[in-house]
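#random but structural
TW: two for the price of one
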Amino acid sequence: MADLRVNIAGVEWSNPVTTASGTFGFGREYAEYFDLSNLGAVCLKALSAKPRLGNRSPRIAEVNDGILNSVGLQNPGAQHFIDNELEWLRQFDTKIIANLCGSTVEDYVEVAEILGDKVDMFELNISCPNVKEGGMAFGTDPKMIEDITSRVKAASKVPLIVKLSPNVTDITEMAKAAEAGGADAVSLINTLLGMKIDIKTRKPVLYNNMGGLSGPAVMPVAVRMVYQVRRAVKLPIIGMGGIATGEDAIEFLLAGADAVAVGTAGIVDPYAWIKVRSGINDYLDRNGYNSVKDIVGKVDING
């Protein structure tokens, strides 16, 4: 059996599979189906310094090969997580990644300080709108990315992953900005901005009109962006976007991802994470590889 261990910014995972934030809650629902110790890491739903109610319904819409969501980062707040979820999660032999969200740089710093070193890693959700900049998402401007990364990194007691938004002209510039700001790793992609209209009412299906598209429909874009970022920065990469099978995950690894996150597929099949992990292992064994690290970035480009 191949060695599935990976090292992400100094944190060793037992295998390269984690959960995509926003699709796994705090893990209690999925623990009814499988032992969470089977995952290299669990990335939690977004946490803010104070509780967030999220957006009004309807905020989920099914589309061809994916879903649109505008949940709005609803969560009970970082302290509630510490008091009510952390001890339960610690029973599993897996790494815990807290996804940080906020509306200002100060919000992000505050939630990082509240969590301290109680989790293994942070993932910085820079797709949040910056209220001090008129609602522009942090992740669409390189200067903002570098600034917020450096500020949160200074307050962080654990390695910091920066989650990149695909809703930009050049993803490599955003990755370089995160690296310049002191990020320990990057994850990509977050959801693509999309819209669905009810032709009977002539109104958008989502109350917020637009939402984030995830699922198989975004995978070719995600693979392309991982490939580009691998050639732009030296940071570890967690690839995500439409992964549903081991074969999907292999594409990301070949493109340059060091690990992968599964999200929307788990909503359809609660065993998706386990199947992806097994699929990676089967591919490595069939092709005579000793370690998952042997295929990272090994795509054979034409020309």
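TW: number two ↓
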Amino acid sequence: MASHWLKARQTKYAAYATVYILVILAVVVVANVLADRYNKTYDATSNKRYSLSQETKKIVAGLRQPATVTYFNQSTHFGQGRDLLDEYSSLSSKVHVEYVDPDKQPEIARADSISTVPTVTVTIGDRTEKASDVSEEGITGAFIRDIKGNTRTVCFVTGSGEHQIDDDSRDGLSQLKTVLAHDSYEAQSVDLVTQAAIPAACTAVVVAGPIHDYEAPEVNALKTYVENGGRAFFMLDPPLQMGSNTISGNDALTALLQSWGVTVDKDLVLDLNPIGQIAGLGPQEPLVTSYDTSQPIVAQMRGTATAFPMTGSLTVANTAKSTASQLFSSSSSSFATLNLSSPRVSASDPSNKKGPLVLAAAATYETGKANQEGRIVVVGSSIWASNRFLGFNGNADLAANAINWLCSDEDLISIRPKTPDERQVTMTAAQLSMVRLVSQFVLPLIVIVAGILVWWKRR
């Protein structure tokens, strides 16, 4: 009787079902255990908008002591910041995330001067910094301020028609100021006309597209600053003499740069590369896609395009006390014209210089003092860093990387988080009507007809 029961069909089915259920339960349990122990995600978006940037990963991976990230919010809203903060904790075992409800633990909120929620603080050692907002830029900025400790100031020279950091017009640098703030740099203006000396608080100095010549006191101030271990970023436009907005040649300033190994050639680079035209750029806006990856500023920019409108070329050579190297060049289809007073340029002019042509360079100056070398970066254009072009592909990355290198913050050099892409489908009225017709009538009709044919065949 027992053997007959064991051989019964119902018994076999029950045994099979039991085994299948146990296997499925085992798989589910193992999957949950692995998911709890190992936080692995995959970001399928084109610009990795849900992943932390390489900059953040480098900073967190380089932590030398534990870091505590505290998220202040009402307990019912902890989920708003959990996904982002879990990304940080998954990068390093030294990052610990804590969640505090100011209503339930007011003493902790009071100790950290928390007046609004949500707020994030980052504590490393005896330093605690508030994030500017609950975003990757804000939280990573707090990490940087904790690690670096001191305030780093980037001074933008004014007084000779340079681009202004508080100018939010197309030619202003307000967006560059915002980019630098993400790396916890404070930007301020310095007028060398009224006070021909670089303030001691300046970690780096930026000369962004002067229109007028620098006088001897201004040039001497920059010379003294760099040759005593200072850091300077020069963005100089070609001395165009077209229309009412002419640009001076700035001979005294370019002579100073030449003494450091970077000669600013007074020409205008044009590029006939069709790839630039595909990107919406004209010949006067050379597109760069390859870089000298041995230089830290551009080492990680492989595959990233940058554009340099109205740029001149440079010549690089070492001097007795300086070592200079090029950062990138224009394409082989480019050329430089010496005709700076007329918009009519002939590509077949025998006086043109053939590409590729150096568009940017970096140099170090030996001061004779240990760990106090001077550093400069020179680019033959300033418009590329203005509000109208900074958002082009990798321009913002390049500008920030140059400042990082000048300030000896090589650990911050990387490709920054990209803004989310706006992907919209634009259709005409006829196209919209066609989509509606196909989705509402044609496809359902096909399904109905297929069903009728299957029924008829089986019948």
